[in-house]
From TrEMBL:
It is a multi-pass membrane protein. It comes from Pseudodesulfovibrio aespoeensis (strain ATCC 700646 / DSM 10631 / Aspo-2). Belongs to the ABC-4 integral membrane protein family. It is found in: Cell membrane. GO terms for cellular component: plasma membrane. Its main location: membrane. The lineage of its organism: Bacteria, Pseudomonadati, Thermodesulfobacteriota, Desulfovibrionia, Desulfovibrionales. The chain crosses the membrane at residues 26-46, 284-311, 331-355, 375-392. This is ABC3 transporter permease protein domain-containing protein. InterPro entries: ABC3_permease_C, MacB_PCD, Macrolide_Exporter_MacB. The keyword Membrane applies. Keywords: Cell membrane, Membrane, Transmembrane, Transmembrane helix.
Amino acid sequence: MTGPRLYIRVASMGLGAVWSFKLRSIFVILGVAFGIASLTLIVTAVDGANRKAVEMVEMFGPDAALVFGGNIMMRAVGMRTMTLSRDDARQVRESLPGVREVLPMRVQAGQTVKAGNRNMQDVLVVGSTENYAVAWDWPLVEGRDITAADEAAGAKVVLLGDKPAVELFGDESPVGRVVFISNIPFQVVGRLAYRGVTTGGGGDIDNRVIIPLNTLMQRYNLDRKYFRALRIKFYEPENMAAHAENLRSLLRELHHLEFGADDDFTILTADEILKFLSMFKGGLSIFLGVTATISMLVGGFVLANLFSISVSERAEEIGLKKALGARGSAIMLQFLVEACALTLLGGVLGLFLGLGLGQFLSRLDILTIQFSWKAFFLALAGSQAVGLIFGLKPARQAAGLDPIQAMRGEG
């Protein structure tokens, strides 16, 4: 028997051996599956991190900076976080070159919003000056934005994010309706478009309502001089590095910080977000890459050891085949077919395990994953590489057995 028929016969015998030695097959499949699961997780997690970076940068805007009170990089005990003042916002608007929009903000988390017999808990209430939607490049589905008149009068008006609008009003228009925020009535003047992006802390960005900043400070009895964050948009996004440095210098001067002293504020730009996500992605890749490598090596060693034992156990079978004229290359091919078939099954199982684990971690807001065909092909390629590399030595061992000694069980 020669040619393709020989190879088909050898492959058939290899697959038959996979079924015959079930316990060995299960151990090999599981060993490989854990390694492939780790590999799948790293590929989908990195792809998810890339998607997350694109989403966050698009949402944030390449022409904007977000300033937080307090130095969130230092996190010193007792450090003030309310360091941004109304005067800071005014000076930035009037003195900083290239500024287009300046938007002071403050938030109250975990609030309850009601409309009729429906209510939502754990909603983020954002206090903002005029033009919130403009400053955040956030389209309005209907209605209008917060205005300077609303802010000056401390008006009880509200912009609804998509999630509260859907939860409280369904398909009906919320504009002109009344909602109660912490039992205080507010008239809905607009509805923000759906964005579908999670925040850095894993929250739903659409789960928010926006009211005038003065109204927030009055109704929650907050200090009216300071606010938590400042959103700034510039005219020339290509000069964002210079804009950010000018902003930092101005705020340090306004806060009377001495040379060498740490900033008492934090400036975030799209570039800073990308740097952070790149560091996170790099650390994630290293951690999961080491885990995947170790797991795949373990699976490979399991395969090599079990196949070496199998060669000894099947010495008489191998000797008989060689006595009947089977060539060493055919014996080696049979064992390689067995190894690759087992690792292929392990690769498919590992792919589904990795995707399942990724979905679980994604639901817990630990990782963001995105399936791609790259993960599928890498899983198959990785599993076949393990089968070929770690199955080669036992296959050569089987091919090199002396037929007479093998038939005597001396393999």
